Amino acid sequence: MTDGFxxxxxxxxxxxxxxxxxxxxxxxxxxxxxxxxxxxxxxLFARLPKTDILFILLAVTLMIVTELINTAxxxxxxxxxPDRHPLAKIAKDVAAASVLVSAGFAxxxxxxxxxxxxxxxxxxSGIRHSQVSAGTIWLLIALVILTVIVxxxxxxxxxxxxxxxxxTAVAFSIATVIAIFVSQTIVALLAYTLAALIFIMLYDKKTxxxxxxxxxxxxxxxxxxxxxxxxxxx
Length: 234
What we know:
- The chain has helices spanning 2-25, 27-46, 50-80, 86-113, 115-124, 134-154, 166-181, 185-204, 210-233.
- By secondary structure, the protein is mostly helical.
- Helix 3 (50-80) runs antiparallel to helix 4 (86-113).
- Keywords: ATP-binding, Cell membrane, Kinase, Lipid biosynthesis, Lipid metabolism, Membrane, Nucleotide-binding, Phospholipid biosynthesis, Phospholipid metabolism, Transferase, Transmembrane, Transmembrane helix.
- This is Diacylglycerol kinase family protein.
């Protein structure tokens, strides 16, 4: 009985070390964990039903499991074939394809599950019906750009804050404007999907770390909502 417990504990420790290694060394795993945390937090905030939460947990688990398998395949191929080889490339590409399929499933689940809460939030928002000119929208985007520049020049050079991404700030600001003023929620979701694609593209190109991209997206959405809320109260 004691030997069985020790083997189980040893297996659990090895599995934990595998997860820890993936988080420490794999950029995509860090990204998946951060996104999973934000999605689960949004699910709790939106008070989703049990069935929707189960689908979200399934998508998150599938995403993390496929990324772990992809990491294992990559390391095994590198060990067996250090030099470039067509078969080694195929093995890595197929493993990466499994991650892509699970990511697509997670995106579809997220859009279906969060559609009704987002639709209700937009319908209850009083900003959507306010009359704002096109010039005001351009001034709003300029305000977002100015905010990012001020944060970069005021705080980032002193090491107090990570440099926010200007492109993600503008992308999520525009997506927020579209979400507020369109009458169809699906259009708002598509706008945020395009902004998220810009986010992922910049992350894949390693132009900025994840915190910088996330901070830029947060600044773009927050400044837009606050500014339009102030205009709506005038």
